[in-house]
Predict the structure.
Amino acid sequence: MRRSDGLVLLALATVTAVVAVGPAAATGLAGRESVDAYGSWWFQWFVGTSLADGSPLSSTNLLFFPWGKDILTHTGANLVDALITVPVRWTLGDRAAWNALYLVAIVSNALAVGLWLLAYGPSRLGAFAATVLAGLHPYPLYELAEGRPAQALLAPMVVACLAADRAFRGGHAALPWLAGVSLALAGWVYWYGGLFAAITIAVLAAFSPSRETARRLLTVGAVATLLSLPATLPLAQSLRAGEVPGLLPVDAWWRGDFALANAEGDVVRIATLSWDGQATFQGDHLGGGRGLVAGLGVVALCLAAPRRWAAAGLVAVAISLGPFIAEWRNPVYLSLASAFPPAQRLYWPVRAVAVLVPVAAVGAACAARRPWLLAMLAVATGVEPFLRGALPLPAWSLPDRTPWLCLGGAPGALIDLPYGRDQLPLVHQTFHGLPMLNGMHERSRFLVPAGQRELRSQNTYLAALLAAPVNPAANPTWSEADREALGALGYRWVALRLEALAEVGGPIHRARAARQRLDTLAGPASFEVSGVVVWAPWGGTTPCG
């Protein structure tokens, strides 16, 4: 590979990333404000502070205090995206780290495709086209827009698939090792990303049946398994002990029971593929998955890509359609979930379309011999995102830090009200750093610790606090013993976000009634700053009051 070609690839990847992310980064945080963006922001803060403090990354009692959250069992080991941000966070700040990760995702996806195809592809033009295609592919752009950078970091998956394919077709003996390392890294980036890459590698191997292919496939699997053991071993033990919550009722689905509820009784929403390459939810209407998607160049890929890659792409699309297709069972998805128990937490099968990034790259490289196909791909994946408003990415802003900085360094834990409305308290915690009653998906029955659920149902004082913003006119009875018991757990502060009360009922009347009710429960407010009122029911002072 010539150095000039490598520089061209780097320039194409960089320009693509700047076009997609630059406008948003100049005004705020890239992507749109969402619960997933809150969670990604929290994970970046959590990893940075945990590394600085020497705290573990596998669990924390900062959420659902004092019981805590098992990060690995509940969320997975996908902390790589947060780890990437740490050096930037420590040197340039949290906003720069967030936007830098978005640039890294697009540039790395594009370079992983372009460099590989420049070395092994049929033409330089194909490699250049595939570089832009990977940078502007609708799937990673959608995940970035929704605040999920971990799902958009596809470079390890791309390298794993391309290296394995080359290995199965007689490439260098080191390629299976590279594929195995990349496959493990894809799993660490996002645990189902490794699963989708492994399925793709198996499909590619099936098109080159031989003893040597089998040996190399075993090498890929052994290396990936070994490097994944720190996450997969405890996860397997938790599965065997029945400690992994939220598993989907796959056995019932096989029998024809289409109820969308897990073992804990939570109604789930299965995100499946939609026409526009984004996601629709089968929790809203049964049979939500709707065929193949526009904007992915699927037709062109099937014409241009080798059969093994087209087959891998079609398998990924089949998985992405979820458990039901127009009220018919999807045997591909259900078979996967039955054979691989962790897939029973696959609430977003649509993410299997990530496999279409390397498939599209190979298709673009092959299509370079047919200019009309290359033009189809360029239009479908370059122009189309601009036409439907996917590019440039939107931007969002953080809430005011001031009231939460007033709590920074204060002793004790916090109850952020209203409880269960959203995941915005995760962002607040990145400012004040206190442990909270709140957590990720705090309305869920299966992700909230049983001890906390019991406390909320039996402690009359906590129940009264939680009810005040929801129904301030109510006057539930509570006991002083329960107030003292809650304080004995380590709670010191109660905060009310007044803007959160505007969604239901009259905001002024509702806010006044909620404050009066909390004044009755917790005594006079300690301070009020920027629409946040804080009480100290168990005593305590802060720099603001």
In short: The chain has a mean pLDDT of 84. The two ends are 65 Å apart (CA to CA).
